[in-house]
Please model this.
Amino acid sequence: MTKVDAWIYTQVTTFSDATTIAIVGPADKRNLWNEFNAIDRLTVNMYDYDPQRACDEIITADVVFDIELKEELIINYACEKMWPLGRIYKDREFILVGDNEKHNGDCNPIISNKMMVEQNHIKEIWSFTELTRWQGKYFMVYGCN
Amino acid sequence: MDREKKLNLFTFKWGDKYGPEYVNRLYGSLLTYCNVPFNFTCITDDSTGILPEIGLLDYNQIGPDSWREYPQNKIFTREKLTLFDLDIPGTKGWIDLDVLIHGNVTEMVSRDFEKPTFILNHWNMTKENSFKWFGKGSDCHVNSSFVFWQDDCAQWLFDYTDENLEKLMFTYKSLDKYLYYQHWRKDRLAFWEEGLVDNFNFSDPPHIERKGIKITLFNTSHITIQGMDIEAYELDETEGMWPYEYWMEYGV
Model:
């Protein structure tokens, strides 16, 4: 399990009461989905707009423009690539992950945890951290709005 | 504008990247290769040097005020979409200035359009891994340089954009990418079939005149922006190559 996934897993299994989880932008990562599915109380859905990722486990949809998420906890792996989900979805738990590498296609490079907190209108911050990436950092926040 | 004419064509010229000769020669190419009567209007912030027979609209007045509040690097060339909201019956089209028309387009512009019809980048679609970066948001196979629609069949696209303006402006830097990620993906757009439109700089091999092609694109802006190592030309830089001969024949 990657350090990012391990941090997320710890937050969810230690602190969260959510029974439904949305994983947004998982790409080809399945570690978290597998781990959470092994926990009886959790129902986990994965969302990715990339048709190339389409498979039985993935709901192919853009969670900003196409559909409305119903899950209690939203894990967003790709905050740097989208409109802040906390501005759409209220009274939810969020685990927000974003990076500052400014790839082509990133509309929202994340430069701090404070930035994600403010963008997503997070009212309570339960934990946060930073992890080193290839050329930058992951910023990670767990809280609710 | 002659309302009796059922074909209304538009182009945009703002800033100083392209001179009035681009407008005039685009018009000249249409006189040569479009055999149905049409109105041709340039939406511009500077009409100096544009032929008097070309209609003019003020670039600074086109579209909703709310759209103009955003910087140009948000959904770049979004102004085009405001044409979908014009209350003009019949067939309408916009053509970018960096387009060379060098074949007869009468059949193309005379079709019954049920959806707004854009260019699909066929020259890129078949390349290996051409969709590899879709999920990263850096892919794009839609081009909005030669677009036609009929009556109000594209009104929904203006309305959708207006209703989702803040989120869309935040998410997309270019119109083509917005169209690709939000509307190509959902099969809401139509496209010219392969073999009609080519790209002078990106097709493989580049820079050649292909049989049957009626429209060739010369866009280079994303090459500069992305620092791509490609030998690319704007139309006015093709002196000594085949496009220049066509272009110079089309007027002043």
Observations:
- The longest helix of chain B spans residues 20-33.
- Chain B touches chain A at residues 131, 133-139, 164, 167, 170-173, 181-182, 185, 226 (CB under 8 Å).
